[in-house]
Amino acid sequence: MSQVYDVLILGGGPAGLSMATTLARQAYTALILDSNVYRNARATHMHNVPGFDHVPPADFRAKVRSDLMARYKSVEFRDATTIVEVRQRQSTTSGCEFCNADGGNTSTALEFKNDVVENIMAQNGSSSTVAALADAKFEARDAHGNVFYGKKLGIATGVRDRLEEQVDGYAECWGRGM
Ligand SMILES: Cc1cc2nc3c(=O)[nH]c(=O)nc-3n(C[C@H](O)[C@H](O)[C@H](O)COP(=O)(O)OP(=O)(O)OC[C@H]3O[C@@H](n4cnc5c(N)ncnc54)[C@H](O)[C@@H]3O)c2cc1C
Fold first, then answer.
1. Could you tell me the distance, in angstroms and rounded to a whole number, from the CA of residue 57 to the centre of ligand 1?
2. HSE value, Cβ hemisphere, 13 Å, CA-based, for 119
3. Closest approach atom of ligand 1 to CA 37
4. Which among 25, 81, 149, 150 is least surrounded, fewest beta carbons within 10 Å?
5. What global pTM score does this model have?
6. Ligand 1 center from residue 163 Cα (angstroms)
7. First-residue to last-residue Cα distance in the chain
8. Can you tell me whether residue 44 is helix, strand or coil?
9. What is the pLDDT of residues 68-115, one digit of tens each?
């Protein structure tokens, strides 16, 4: 069933997990959408994080996840999920419109609501949650066309190192002593 989360969190690395931990403690619902391609994937151990010095980064992420799942039911995870489009409801002088994250208008509020209704109908044949979905301020769509709704959007997508733009041999050494 479609659900409106208090926060959609894009990215499940340390930043996204930290955000989720804070939200969970304050009883907000959150969905972590993570494509699981972490910047420090080449590193065998992480440092400078209190309590996790010289620990594999995957162990750190697993520990934070298990802590969250053990005590807070309000945080959910959706792995191997790459968000390819985010739309935000914005108020304008001519009404309420939805825009792409880059600011380009894509459709009217009415069109968005129709999308929502069709989505719910396709999933459970019921319109009982249509009213709740009216709270959605953000719509995130993954590469397979799945749609997620949130009142807020947390961006924890990290950065991508552009190793292909470096001198020959740089990429091979990255995370291996450099
Ligand atoms: C080789 C190396 C070693 C490092 N060692 C350390 C260290 O020892 N200690 C330290 O503090 N820092 C270290 N860093 C820095 C480290 O990468 C950052 O501290 C930390 O990983 C950043 O966390 P993050 O959550 O911002 O990003 P990430 O861990 O990269 O997580 C971002 C997540 O968002 C996902 N994502 C991106 N776009 C989308 C999308 N559109 N939809 C869904 N998901 C998406 C990514 O796939 C990824 O899973 C190291 C970095 C490198 C490169």
1. 10
2. 20
3. 47
4. 25
5. 0.83
6. 15
7. 47
8. coil
9. 999 999 999 999 999 999 998 766 555 555 555 555 544 444 344 444
